[in-house]
Design goal:
5 helices; four-stranded mixed beta sheet
Length: 174
Amino acid sequence: MRRLESVVDAVLAAIDESYALDLARRLVRIPSVFRPDDAQANETAVAALVAGELRGLGLEVHCEDAAPGRPNVIGDWIGRGAGPLLILEGHSDVVTEGDAAAWSYPPFGAAVVDGRLYGRGAADMKGGVAAAIAAVRAIRDAGVALPGRIRVAVVADEEGMMLGVKAFIRNGWA
């Protein structure tokens, strides 16, 4: 049990809260609202940011369209030796912002006020995506030799028809 405690302590010590917040802010600033009548209004820019972050951490990254212009990003951190697969899954799309004038802070401004991040997707689900990526980064930085792999999956279209997770499963990732 002592070995597990030291591993957990090492990973907790390696968590970089400023990295997680910065990544969450960069994600929130990208309006990944799907609007069928606007070819630019989709998850493509968020997927590109996520894929770049995962590649920068040394993960094996795959990008696949769940629907045209709506990519899933899958990144694997490969541990040492055989072992289980842990999937950290989140989504890249957000609900429409509605009337932006009704917001206390701009919906894609990523304002931090009194220690809170404000913006569309901060809680659902860009903050969670940033936390998952920051967790894998902490494990990597702590030099923990976990068996198996950790898969970070950031899927499209959770707010609609769930096309992303359906493609993720259909393509054998889970």
